[in-house]
Design goal:
The chain is an alpha+beta fold. The protein has 3 helices and 7 strands, in the order E-H-E-E-H-E-E-E-E-H.
Length: 109
């Protein structure tokens, strides 16, 4: 049974965007929305995780959870999904320090 999915990508190769566009609609740059079967969804996500490289991607799709959806991530992101008693919450990680800011911080202390 087909169900809706949303895939958000950041800094991924153009050929991946082309592959996603075959099955979904890119409603704004990097945001893909479509209705596909679970098999196609899993194959699309496998393709995303194989080529994400330095980019990042998030997949949201319906699932039999309390919230009614599941979240999958690939690549490095500051927002990381965590399970909290069966609920998926997003945890923010610290921003990576930029070398010039770290140098200025050390010189002022």
């Amino acid at each position: 049974m087909p169900s809706m999915l949303v895939i958000a990508t950041t800094a991924v190769p153009d050929h991946l965007r082309g592959a996603l566009s075959r099955w979904t609609t890119e409603v704004v740059p990097g945001i893909f929305v479509g209705t596909v079967s679970a098999r196609v969804r899993d194959q699309l996500w496998d393709a995303v995780t194989e080529v994400v490289a330095d980019g990042a991607a998030v997949l949201v799709h319906p699932a039999p959870t309390e919230q009614g959806y599941a979240i999958r991530t690939a690549g490095t992101r500051r927002r990381v999904p965590i399970d909290f008693d069966g609920l998926t919450l997003m945890r923010m990680t610290a921003a990576p320090q930029q070398p010039h800011l770290a140098k200025n911080k050390q010189s002022t202390s």
